[in-house]
């Protein structure tokens, strides 16, 4: 078995579409990013790559490459999972945390789990997603952006 962790953070910008865990979330702001800015899926990709010893998301999907501009991060997740699968690994479980003062995310967690477990070829109970605030502390607490953390366990 192999474990991997991933961390990502993006700043807010006014307007646009906020996407977290592949889910469109109604909100006045979205993430400043080259892709769709899905911090949760980016953290998960890094955890998968880390567990498989395959480097990081920036190496495989360089932000300067026009191919990845505004791309749906579920496409990146599926490509990442394919690389990990090609090394002979399957996912045992993933545990993900989104850190955001707002918006409230509880009602979207179920759909995120559904999307992510589908993309990883596992059942929803193998993907846990938590959302937390930081009680107004730090950049997430001040509402300047969103952070995400992921750990993944792989088995070959
Ligand atoms: Mg990112």
Description:
The protein is an alpha+beta fold and 156 residues long. Helices cover 31% and strands 31% of the residues. A hairpin with a 2-residue loop joins β2 (18-20) and β3 (23-25). α1 (39-52) runs parallel beside α3 (73-86) and α3 runs parallel beside α4 (109-120). The longest helix has 14 residues, at 39-52. Magnesium ion (MG) binds next to β1 and α1.
Task: Describe the secondary structure blueprint for this structure.
Layout: E1 2-14, E2 18-20, E3 23-25, E4 29-31, H1 39-52, H2 57-60, H3 73-86, E5 90-99, H4 109-120, E6 127-132, H5 138-141, E7 145-155
Shape: globular
Q: Distance between termini?
A: 7 Å
State the low-pLDDT regions, or none.
Answer: none
Indicate the CATH architecture: 2-Layer Sandwich
The biggest beta sheet reads: 5 strands, mixed
Ligands bound, unique: magnesium ion
Strand order of the largest sheet: 4-1-7-5-6
Briefly, what is this?
This protein is α+β, with helices and mostly antiparallel strands and 156 residues long. The protein has helices at 39-52, 57-60, 73-86, 109-120, 138-141; strands at residues 2-14, 18-20, 23-25, 29-31, 90-99, 127-132, 145-155. The chain has one domain (2-155): 60s Ribosomal Protein L30, Chain: A, CATH 3.30.1330.50.
